[in-house]
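# nightly structure sweep
# worker-07 picked up a monomer target from the shared queue
# config: single-sequence mode, recycle default, output format = C-alpha cells
# input follows
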Amino acid sequence: MTSVISAQNLSLTFETNDGPVHALSEVTLDIAKGDFVSFIGPSGCGKTTFLRVMADLEQPTGGTVTVNGVSPGAARLARSYGYVFQAAGLYPWRTIAGNIRLPLEIMGYSRADQMQRVAKVLDLVDLNGFEKKFPWQLSGGMQQRASIARALAFDADILLMDEPFGALDEIVRDHLNEQLLQLWAKTQKTIAFVTHSIPEAVYLSTHIVVMSPRPGRVTDVITSPLPRERPLEIRDTPEFLSIAHRVREGLRAGHSYD
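# output follows
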C-alpha cells in the first residue's frame, strides 16, 4: 500500500514563558492510502498537535513528516487535504450552502462548479434540503455534518478530523459515526481522526494509534480485524471488546512512563 502520510522521528517542542513544552517525541508512523486511522490518548498527549503538523499549522522541531510524498506546506498548497475542527466553525451570517461554498470561492472555482460541488457534498452528508438554512437553525450534529461537507467540497484525498463529535451526545455521536463510515466507504478517502473515545476509535478505524501522555509517543498501533462494513451492534462482539481492551491497556501502560 502507498503511504500517504509518513512521520519519521517527529518531535515538536513549544517554547513558552514557563519553559519548553515537549508535545511530541520521536513519533514514527505511516498511514496508507484509504486507511481510517484514529489517534487516541490522554488530554495533552499531542494528538491534535500531530494532526496540525500534518496540516502545516504547526512546524516540527525534529524529524520529518510528508503528506503525499511532499512537505505539509506543499500538500496544503496542492489542496491535498480537508480539515474538520472540533467546533463546526460555520459563519452564522452565511447559509449552509454559503459556508460549504466558502473554500471554493477562495480557490476560484466557477459559480457553476461551486453549485455542483455543494450539491454533491450535501448529498454525501445527507443534508439535502438544508442548503438555505442558517447554522443556528440546525442541530449540533447537523452543523458538524455541514463542516465535514465543507472539508469535502474541493475533493481532497485526505480528511483530517480533530475530535469532530466530542461535544455531541452519545445518540447523535453513534449516528454520525455510522454516517462517517458510510461516507468513507463511498469516497475512499484517507482519514486521520482524533478522539478521546475508545468505542469510537475501535468502531471507526482500520488502525488505532495509542499515544502516551506528554511528550506524545506512539505506544501501540493496532490493526483492526473487523470487517469494513460495521453495524453499531458490532460493538457487542468479542472481537470488538478485545480490541477495546487492548486500547485501554495501552493507555494504562502509557501512563507508566510518568
